[in-house]
Design brief:
The chain is an alpha/beta fold. It has 34 helices and 26 strands. The longest helix has about 35 residues.
Length: about 950
């Protein structure tokens, strides 16, 4: 109270108030109808003091306020501010927010799709756009004072993360950088790096959520708190949280229940549904169904809710289940409002496309307040769902995890059905970082008093594991930075080879690698002390035991080598036998998942790589496509044939046979069983082991028996110490190689890339050739392949639709590999050009292997994927959406996204292609126009 202050204190307080009023922060605070949090004030004050800032705070904590203050400072100082985001959806949303505050004349938008008022003092853009501007030396960089990098933790992304580091390294020194990140456990390390490359940078970390988050497990009819009543009110403080003992008891009881193995019906196991029903009768605990969960949350006032399901099909199925259950979350007034908004937002979509897109089923669910949200949906549909959810007109959304990485769409409650998801290779537990990201959507600032995260009970759920996920709020930021061909030519053109090398050494990747070496060096020192102790333990009074141990190891290594050679010889014999197979041969597959009788449909492809991912999918022989006696069409690998295979019989394959048709497979498999089902294959005889006649093995055994230490009574004790010594010595040598490998790793990769580009005449010393200048304009995973296709005039004379088909191979990647059936391709020139592209890739792949550029390390050119070529050709040929999607067997959202990426690369090709004696540039622009129609044109978000 002011009346309690002394005159001196009152005077000091008045001075402080006057000083604050004189800052840019004071009028900025008045723009908001809520007070700023301490971390926001601290970051804004650091910015105003001329420092860069790194703000790491939980999702929904309001860290974008700091980015908006940078915008405010730029306008106050008459300078520019670029606000970058990782995805176009975020760019569009931030653009709309800033236009609302500052007016359309002061705000611009630059994404792959849109260019609006690019010369404005505030420009929102995707990070890639800014990277391209930096390399091109764009005039738009003039007067740039601030760059906000929203979601800067994206630099961990293995596909796109390098772009963030490129921008941070190459921004002019005069630009103040504002980095906004999710809570990461190594924010100080990242801040130290920013301090090194950008100058004085303040690191502000906030662990507290603006809305407390309560964690629950829903089991049967009961909602269990994950933790007991806490003294820190929903996780704001740091006091210890104890697991709910009731939940622990439940887990122990339920997870020890077993079913009676003799519980059979008519000789068959009871069906899963019957077992579930019987389990419910024995127990009060079950996993509630999706409609049941939503009804329960609705009754308890915990909607709106987002249910994360790690499957697109699962999201769509959840909506259907809610509809079949008769769930209605909207009243009549809300339903009419939904229809009004939906019809306004989809008015541009032709009526015939609405049926194809499942519009009417989607609208029915929306009117009831229920929706799915995933990458397979049409972008316009996703935007409508987001808008309705924010307005409170959709109250239950079933979404994949991509929603957690996207736009601001908070809910009161977040539901996780399972704690396991498919990561592209296997089903794996979600990480603490992923759990934090998903549950971070719970709790709407200024609306909810608290947020709720609900995990559905599953058998074998471990509450302690869940508590570990919920309690570990941070995850480390790991650089994914790798030099690329495009990056190399742009760097050399701008800075020369020597300076480029130095710049790459300043990357966060190298910064982390150098720091990690310190710990490895300490381990080497500890290992060397251990080696001395082991050396003493294996000392023998009869002779040199180290020499004796080496003889024993040499013997073991020789025996292993001979066994390996024998296995390799058997594989070679098997591969030779596979090469002799012909369509129609009936064979017996000796081992593997598809062991048994099979009919060869296609002998397979020549020895080599299947998809260009060296280190991932080697094989040493043909991969025959077969029809098994069980009606499955599968492409087998050499691992299925450890011994040679011979044709047991011959069969005619009908010309009408279609491997995709279940009826065709059934008929031919039946004929196969009738023709050869009675034949028993001959067993392969094992050959005499090579070790039995090997002179080197005989010599080593003789020397071992003659060695003085062989007669020692403590020989085996000494041998155990010698084995420990050898293992530790081997580990120490590996650590020393790791130290050597982590020093200058980025620069060494850059050197190899430069050497390859020099070989291909893209670089000559510090000079960039005309070929290199063309490559500098091509950004993407297959930048060098695109450049080589332009140089070899592969795309000359193609129609716009044919060019679109070819360019699609540069961007498309199938979600799942499908070896069984080759993709459908356009006939004529397009097919020839696609074949030539694959041939050029093969040449580049061989060159990369020669120059030790390894795709397993994230560098190099993957094989072009032809799976989208037919769809791109059809769409660019003005075919209907119904026809294209039906033949592509692809969701509308995926189709639009791939078309947008093809359009983006076509634009780059139009800019990079020769302007004289070439049709490519003109046809690339025509192909863009041909693709940019219908659903692709009216989807504003890519």
């Amino acid at each position: 109270m002011t009346e309690d202050l002394t005159p001196a204190q009152a005077y000091a307080a008045a001075l402080a108030r006057n000083a604050e009023q004189a800052t840019a922060l004071a009028p900025f605070r008045e723009l908001y109808d809520f007070g700023l949090d301490p971390f926001q004030i601290e970051a804004c004050q650091a910015l105003e003091a001329g420092k860069g800032v790194l703000v790491a705070a939980p999702t929904g904590s309001g860290k974008t306020i700091v980015g908006e203050f940078a915008v405010h400072l730029a306008l106050t100082q008459g300078r520019k501010c670029f606000y970058t985001t990782p995805i176009k959806a975020l760019s569009n949303q931030k653009y709309a927010d800033l236009v609302k505050r500052y007016g359309a004349d002061k705000v611009g938008l630059l994404t792959g799709d849109n260019s609006v008022n690019g010369d404005a003092p505030i420009v929102v853009m995707t990070t890639e756009v800014l990277r391209n501007m930096l390399y091109a030396g764009s005039q738009a960089l003039s007067g740039l004072g601030y760059v906000v990098m929203d979601e800067v933790h994206y630099l961990s992304d293995r596909f796109r993360g390098a772009v963030w580091e490129e921008v941070i390294i190459h921004l002019p020194e005069s630009v103040t950088l504002v980095s906004l990140s999710a809570t990461v456990s190594n924010a100080e390390e990242f801040g130290d790096w920013l301090d090194t490359v950008r100058g004085d940078t303040e690191v502000i970390v906030s662990e507290s959520r603006p809305v407390p988050l309560w964690q629950h497990v829903l089991a049967g009819r009961r909602m269990y708190d994950l933790f007991e009543e806490e003294t820190d009110h929903g996780g704001r403080g740091v006091s210890r949280r104890e697991l709910n003992p009731d939940l622990l008891r439940l887990a122990r009881t339920e997870n020890t229940r077993t079913y009676n193995p003799r519980d059979r019906r008519r000789g068959k196991m009871v069906r899963e549904a019957d077992r579930e029903r019987e389990r419910r009768q024995r127990s009060r605990i079950w996993t509630p169904g999706r409609p049941e969960v939503i009804e329960r949350l609705d009754a308890e006032g915990l909607l709106p809710a987002i249910t994360f399901i790690f499957s697109r099909a699962g999201c769509e199925a959840a909506v259907q289940q809610c509809l079949y259950a008769g769930l209605r979350l909207n009243d009549d007034e809300a339903r009419l409002r939904v229809r009004e908004i939906v019809e306004a937002r989809t008015a541009a979509i032709p009526t015939e496309d609405l049926h194809v897109l499942g519009y009417y089923e989607w609208l029915e669910a929306l009117e009831r307040g229920i929706a799915a949200h995933h990458a397979g949906m049409l972008p316009t549909f996703k935007e409508v769902v987001e808008e309705l959810f924010v307005r409170g007109l959709v109250k239950a959304v079933f979404a994949t995890e991509t929603l957690a990485l996207g736009i601001n769409m908070p809910a009161r409650t977040v539901i996780l059905e399972k704690l396991v998801k498919w990561n592209g290779e296997q089903h794996a537990d979600i990480t603490p970082g992923e759990y934090t990201q998903l549950t971070g959507r719970a709790g709407r600032r200024g609306i909810d008093v608290e947020g709720h995260a609900v995990v559905l009970w599953q058998r074998a759920l471990d509450p302690e594991h869940l508590a570990g996920l919920a309690g570990t709020r941070t995850y480390p930021l790991r650089s994914s930075f790798k030099p690329s061909y495009n990056m190399a030519v742009n760097l050399v053109e701008g800075f020369g080879r020597h300076r480029s090398r130095e710049l790459l050494e300043t990357s966060f990747a190298q910064f982390q690698a150098d720091r990690s070496v310190v710990g490895i060096s300490r381990q080497v020192q500890r290992n060397e002390e251990g080696l001395q102790g082991y050396r003493e333990g294996m000392t023998c009074h009869l002779g040199d035991f180290e020499e004796y141990a080496r003889l024993r190891r040499d013997l073991k290594d020789r025996e292993t080598e001979l066994a390996r050679q024998g296995a390799a010889q058997r594989r070679a014999q098997a591969a030779d036998s596979l090469e002799k197979l012909k369509p129609g041969d009936v064979i017996h597959v000796p081992t593997g998942k598809f062991a048994g009788l099979a009919l060869v449909l296609d002998p397979g492809i020549p020895a080599g790589r299947t998809n260009g991912h060296r280190g991932f999918e080697h094989h040493d022989g043909p991969r025959p496509l077969v029809l098994t006696a069980e009606r499955q069409v599968k492409r087998l690998a050499s691992i299925d044939f450890p011994v040679p295979v011979e044709a047991l019989e011959r069969m005619r394959i009908p010309k009408s046979f279609n491997p995709r048709s279940p009826q065709s497979r059934r008929d031919l498999a039946s004929a196969l069983r009738s023709k050869a089902g009675h034949i028993n294959p001959e067993r392969h005889r094992r050959q005499r082991a090579a070790a039995a006649d090997d002179r080197e093995i005989a010599r080593l055994r003789t020397e071992i028996r003659a060695h003085p230490c062989h007669g020692c009574d403590e020989r085996e004790d000494h041998a155990r110490w010698a084995e420990r010594y050898h293992r530790l010595q081997r580990d120490t040598q590996q650590l020393e190689r790791r130290i050597e490998g982590r020093t200058n790793t980025i620069a060494r990769t850059f050197d190899r890339i430069v050497a390859l580009l020099t070989e291909l005449d893209y670089l000559r010393g510090d000079d960039v050739t005309d070929n290199g200048k063309r490559l500098a304009r091509l950004y993407g995973e297959l930048d060098l392949l695109a450049s080589e296709c332009l140089r070899d005039r592969v795309w000359e004379g193609l129609t716009p639709a044919e060019l679109a088909a070819c360019v699609s191979a540069l961007v498309f990647e199938a979600r799942q590999a499908d070896d069984a059936v080759a993709p459908k391709l356009p006939a004529g020139n397009a097919k020839v050009a696609l074949g030539e592209m694959v041939r050029i890739w093969g040449r580049l792949d061989a060159l990369e292997e020669e120059f030790k550029i390894n795709q397993a390390e994230g560098v190099g050119q993957r094989e072009p994927d032809l799976g989208f070529a037919w769809a791109a050709y059809q769409w660019a040929s003005d075919k209907s959406l119904d026809e294209v999607l039906r033949e592509a067997e692809m969701p509308a959202g995926d189709f639009v996204r791939w078309c947008k990426q093809v359009i983006d690369v076509l634009g780059q090709i139009a800019a990079a292609a020769p302007k004289e004696n070439s049709t490519v540039a003109k046809n690339a622009r025509k192909a863009v126009d041909a693709l940019l129609r219908g659903v692709v044109a009216y989807s504003s978000v890519g």
